[in-house]
Amino acid sequence: MSRGSGPRASLDALGEGAVTTEAISVMRASALERRVAVLGAGSWGTTFAKVLAEGGAEVALWARRPEIAREITETHRNSDYLPGINLPIGLTASSSLRSVLQNAEQVYVSVPSQTLRQNLSDIRDLIPSGVPVISLMKGVEKGTGLRMSEVVIESLGIDPSLVAVASGPNLALEIAKRQPTAAVISSESLETATLVAATATNPYFRSFVNTDVIGTEFGGVLKNLIAVAIGIVDGVGYGENTKASIITRGLAEMTSFAVSFGAKPETLSGLAGLGDLIATCQSPLSRNNTAGRLLGQGYRFDDVVRQMNQTAEGLASVAPILELAARQGVDMPIVTQVAEVLAGTLDPRNIAPHLTETDEPQGE
Question: What positions constitute the catalytic site (predicted)?
Answer without folding.
Answer: 223 (proton acceptor)
